[in-house]
């Protein structure tokens, strides 16, 4: 096996040398990023154009809010969400969400999504032991 360009392997690992090593440290590969790829993110314009990352974060927060409301509520919460979808582009998104009871200008939806993420991490840690 030939070593990958830009990658570094500990001695005795499948990097082309014939020695073998059985320690944990040697079985863990380390990868170095080639400097040519260090600014690769800059070639993806939606990362810095039209507030894409902001839109993504707010969208996830709103989706988490509605998912929680629907899963713990009933028909009213479902209908509220469907009203948001039906509104489409009829107004600014923050106005549509505010009419549905979600104030994206407050910290509440962001704190809620972080709490949900924490719960998910806690569950994963419990499974790992």
Report what the structure shows.
By secondary structure, this protein is mainly α. It is built from five helices and two strands. Helix content is 51%, strand content 3%. Strands 1-2 form a two-stranded antiparallel ribbon. The radius of gyration is 24 Å and the shape is flat.
What are the key terms here?
two-stranded antiparallel sheet; flat; 129 residues; 5 helices; single chain; 2 strands
Strand order of the biggest β-sheet: 1-2
What structural class is derived from the secondary structure elements?
mainly alpha
Order of helices and strands: EHEHHHH
Terminal residue distance = 36 Å
Q: Tell me the major beta sheet.
A: 2 strands, antiparallel
Short description:
The chain is built from 5 helices and 2 strands; from the N terminus they run βαβαααα. It has 129 residues and is mainly α. It is flat, with a radius of gyration of 24 Å.
Give the helix/strand layout:
Elements: E1 7-8, H1 24-27, E2 30-31, H2 52-72, H3 75-87, H4 93-99, H5 108-128
Antiparallel strand pairs: 1-2
């Amino acid at each position: 096996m030939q070593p990958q360009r830009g990658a570094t392997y500990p001695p005795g690992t499948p990097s082309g040398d014939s020695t073998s090593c059985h320690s944990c440290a040697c079985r863990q590969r380390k990868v170095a990023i080639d400097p040519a790829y260090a600014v690769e993110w800059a070639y993806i314009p939606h990362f810095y154009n039209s507030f894409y990352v902001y839109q993504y974060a707010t969208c996830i927060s709103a989706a988490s809010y509605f998912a929680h409301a629907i899963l713990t509520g009933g028909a009213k919460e479902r209908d509220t969400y469907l009203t948001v979808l039906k509104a489409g582009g009829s107004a600014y998104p923050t106005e549509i969400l505010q009419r549905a009871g979600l104030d994206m200008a407050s910290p509440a939806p962001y704190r809620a999504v972080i709490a949900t993420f924490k719960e998910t991490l806690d569950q994963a840690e419990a499974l790992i032991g």
